[in-house]
Structure formats: structure tokens, C-alpha cells
């Protein structure tokens, strides 16, 4: 696609300068639109593939204040960091093939990165959320990882996520659990079996009533605490 075109845009991120970063999934790239309307490729754009200059089915993006771009590179089962102006990325999570080891990811989706470079990633096919610290060779399970299901300690194909500024709260759009789960995070490195509270939807009961969800895709919490959910199968935002 041309710089001013998109093909199946998937997620976006808006920086403090008004720049809009769009995951251009079928073009295997991330595009940034400046306030002047000019578009530039900031990650990928060299065809689909596993190379460090490539992406394959990117699905989410997060940008740090300095301009570094983090991409959830789904079909390559990795998270890639593209420094401002770089022509290729650096693998910062996963990248060891599809799998369930702590060094692996399996179809990563929703992404959040702190200014310190700590990565939170929904590991969809492993039904868990992982936390990767800078320069780590493996991640830590911070939610799920107990198999697919509707128990409070389980996730069922988690997608979008939201992390509070002080990293003590995690919200997960649990797509095939048809719910949004709220986890209280621990700051230490000791893995714990965390149970969540369901704050939207009915566990494993999809529907279109006001209290139900149909495959929630993304979740966002506003500054005043209101919860917003992209309710995909019901074609609505709640």
C-alpha cells in the first residue's frame, strides 16, 4: 500500500504530540500520521515475514514518549521494538517460535509497555498474560496460564488489555469467556495463582443483553474510571 493507504487497520495509538500510529495489518507495517496529515512507516513495511525488518500480521502497537514503537507481531509470535528512525526492529519478547515455554509466545495480541520498558502482552493461544522485563530472555505469567476456561483464575483467548499507571491493576478482554476480567497485580517476581473479578459480561454466556458481551476485543479505562469495551460480535461499544 501507498503511505496514505491502509489495508485492514487493526489497532491504533495516539501520542502526546497528536501523532496517530495505526497497525496496518495486511500491509505488515505500522504507519504514523502527524498532525499535518503526513504519513510515514515506523515499523515493518517490507512485506510479511520473520526478518527483523518485517512484520507478519501485526495486531497492536504501543509508543513510548521518546518515540520507540513496540509491536505485537502475531504470526511471528513475538514483540518487536523499533527505535525511532530504525530500519529494523529488536525482538524484546518471544521470538522463539510458537509455544508455551516462558521464553515463547503463541499468537500475542493486546500490548502495553511502561516508560521503563516493562512489557505486558496477552498470549492468546496460551490463555495467559505475560510480563517481560527489559533485557529478559523469558517472561512471567501474571494472569491465566491455567488452561482455557471460565474459572476466576483462568482466561479463554484473552485479547485486549489495559494496565494502570502504577501497574497494580490489569484489565483483560477475555474474548471467548465473554467477559472483562480485573486482576490485582503483584510487584514481586514470585508467580502466584491470581484470581480475577468479572467486571463486565457473564462468564461463558455470550449474548446481546445490556449485561452481556459477545467476544470483547479491546478494553480501555478513562481517567475518571469509566470502563469501555469493544463488543465485537454485538457490533457496539459498551
Could you give a quick summary of the protein structure above?
The protein is mainly beta and 238 residues long.
Give your account of this protein's structure.
It contains no helices and 19 strands. The chain has 238 residues and is an all-beta fold. It has a four-stranded antiparallel β-sheet with strand order 1-2-3-4, with no helix packed on it. The chain has a four-stranded antiparallel β-sheet with strand order 5-6-7-8, with no helix packed on it.
Q: The biggest beta sheet, please?
A: 4 strands, antiparallel
Strand content: 35-45%
The helix/strand class is mainly beta
Q: How confident is the prediction overall: mean pLDDT?
A: 93
Shape: globular
- Residue runs with pLDDT of under 50 for 5 or more positions: none
Evaluate the radius of gyration.
17 Å
As a percent range, the share of helical residues equals under 10%
Give the tally of β-strands.
Answer: 19
Can you list the strand order of the major beta sheet? 1-2-3-4
End-to-end gap = 33 Å
Write the layout of secondary structure elements.
Layout: E1 9-14, E2 20-24, E3 29-33, E4 39-44, E5 58-63, E6 69-73, E7 78-82, E8 90-94, E9 108-113, E10 119-123, E11 128-132, E12 140-144, E13 158-163, E14 169-174, E15 179-184, E16 197-201, E17 216-221, E18 227-231, E19 236-237
Antiparallel strand pairs: 1-2, 2-3, 3-4, 5-6, 6-7, 7-8, 9-10, 10-11, 11-12, 13-14, 14-15, 15-16, 17-18, 18-19
Amino acid at each position: 500500500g501507498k503511505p496514505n493507504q491502509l489495508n485492514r487497520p487493526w489497532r491504533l495509538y495516539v501520542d502526546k504530540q497528536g501523532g496517530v500510529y495505526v497497525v496496518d495489518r495486511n500491509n505488515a507495517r505500522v504507519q504514523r500520521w502527524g498532525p499535518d496529515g503526513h504519513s510515514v512507516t515506523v515499523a515493518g513495511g517490507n512485506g510479511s515475514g520473520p526478518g527483523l525488518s518485517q512484520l507478519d500480521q501485526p495486531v497492536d502497537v504501543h509508543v513510548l514518549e521518546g518515540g520507540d514503537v513496540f509491536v505485537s507481531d502475531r504470526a511471528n509470535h513475538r514483540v518487536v521494538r523499533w527505535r525511532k528512525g530504525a530500519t529494523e526492529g529488536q525482538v524484546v519478547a518471544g521470538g522463539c517460535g510458537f509455544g508455551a515455554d516462558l521464553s515463547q509466545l503463541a499468537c500475542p495480541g493486546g500490548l502495553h509497555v511502561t516508560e521503563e520498558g516493562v512489557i505486558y502482552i496477552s498470549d492468546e493461544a496460551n490463555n495467559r498474560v505475560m510480563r517481560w522485563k527489559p533485557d529478559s530472555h523469558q517472561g512471567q505469567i501474571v494472569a491465566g496460564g491455567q488452561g482455557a476456561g471460565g474459572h476466576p483464575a483462568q482466561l479463554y483467548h484473552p485479547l485486549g488489555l489495559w494496565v494502570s499507571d502504577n501497574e497494580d491493576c490489569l484489565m483483560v478482554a477475555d474474548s471467548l469467556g465473554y467477559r472483562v476480567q480485573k486482576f490485582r497485580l503483584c510487584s514481586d517476581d514470585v508467580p502466584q495463582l491470581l484470581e480475577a473479578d468479572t467486571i463486565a459480561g457473564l462468564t461463558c454466556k455470550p449474548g446481546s443483553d445490556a449485561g452481556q458481551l459477545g467476544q470483547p476485543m479491546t478494553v480501555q479505562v478513562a481517567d475518571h474510571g469509566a470502563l469501555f469495551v469493544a463488543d465485537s460480535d454485538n457490533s457496539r461499544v459498551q
